[in-house]
Amino acid sequence: MTRASVQARCLPVSEWPEQDQNAWALALEPYDAFDPTVGLASEWASATQDVMASGYGRWLNWLAQRDELDGSKSPGERATRARLQAYLESLRSENLAEFSIAGRIKQLGRMLQMIEPAGNWVWIVRAADSLHRAAQPKRDRREIMQPPEEILQLGLDLMDAAEHDRFRTDTDRAVLFRDGLLLAFLVQRPFRRSNLAGLALGQNLELTDVWQIRIEDDDTKNGAPISCDWPPALVDALERYLKVHRETLFRGQKVKVATQALWISKQGRTMGDDAIYCQIKARTKVEFGKAINPHTFRSIAATMIAESSPAESTAIMDVLGHGSMRSSERWYNQAGMRAAGEHFHRSLEAHRSRADDRVSDHEHPD
């Protein structure tokens, strides 16, 4: 492990000092109206709990790297103003985005409020808010955005190559098809990567009359449930992936492990959100010369709403977590009001036409 990866490591809960583990376990207990020290984090969505614990784990790892993680001291005793200032400077030296730095500080402050409620940690949260207000984007997201129809086409092309390039191994073709489906899906349903990675058959992805996605409020960042159909134009691709390519990926398992996860790695295991993040960036980097991260798809997807059908607009609006069409209009304007609907359907028709031509050539060779 490199020095950089050690510094960036998030200390898992199992490696926290004992009193930190106990305090966090108490914060996750069901809320007790008669004991204000119990269950303070229990009403957070599970995704929020994970993010907050991750942020706190990075703080503890930073302390450990400086030999300052003293298990005999309480979480609050370690969080001195001088140490917080040094932590802030360390985060800045890692060349993180200013918004990310503000987020790390706020995660620490909020966690201290949960696990050591007797202390006054408002000063940390307020400092994080001040950092957030003063933050400037590290880069203009528009610099890495691509037209949605081009990303869609990339996804279709990857799936097409997986189906017809016989020079590849079955596993390589399965990975190619999976990544193409990921891109084509994400540009139409811009889930946050934790929800994307968490899609599982029979749990939040089910076939009734249509393929439906239902994600409970406990599993979303803003606490609002997600309910939408799988993109109709990608149903055939989904079913092909499930029938052929996903099964091929399971062959990579050294030890048989049952999983209902939709996205399967080359080793036959569930793909975590970090693995999905890396695959999406790698595929888009090769095609466009600039890596597009999954979160940027939330901006890109807005361009597809501009001229899409009401049903599609509603589905994407729900995934973005917007409460009204007025909220979504901010995204339309940012995206430049491109006629994405027309390009979207043109891309699909071109893909179908190529497939029909191949079938025709096979049935009627020269």
Walk me through this protein's architecture:
By secondary structure, the protein is mainly alpha-helical. The chain has 2 domains: 3-134, no CATH class; 141-363, Intergrase catalytic core (hpI Integrase, Chain A), CATH 1.10.443. Helix content is 58%, strand content 3%. It has 16 helices and 3 strands. β1 and β2 form a beta hairpin. The longest helix has 24 residues, at 340-363. The chain is elongated and about 65 Å long.
- Which sequence of strands runs across the widest sheet? 1-2-3
The CATH H-level homologous superfamily of the largest domain: Intergrase catalytic core
CA radius of gyration is 23 Å
Amount of helix: 55-70%
Proportion of β residues? under 5%
SSE pattern:
HHHHHHHHHHEEEHHHHHH
User: Can you give the mean pLDDT?
Assistant: 80
> What fold name stands as the CATH topology of the largest domain?
hpI Integrase, Chain A
CATH class of the largest domain: Mainly Alpha
Structural class: mainly alpha
Quickly count the domains.
Answer: 2
Largest sheet: 3 strands, antiparallel
CATH A-level architecture of the largest domain:
Orthogonal Bundle
Number of strands: 3
Pick out the low-confidence regions: 1-6, 323-348, 362-366
Between the first and last Cα atoms, what is the distance in angstroms?
Answer: 58 Å
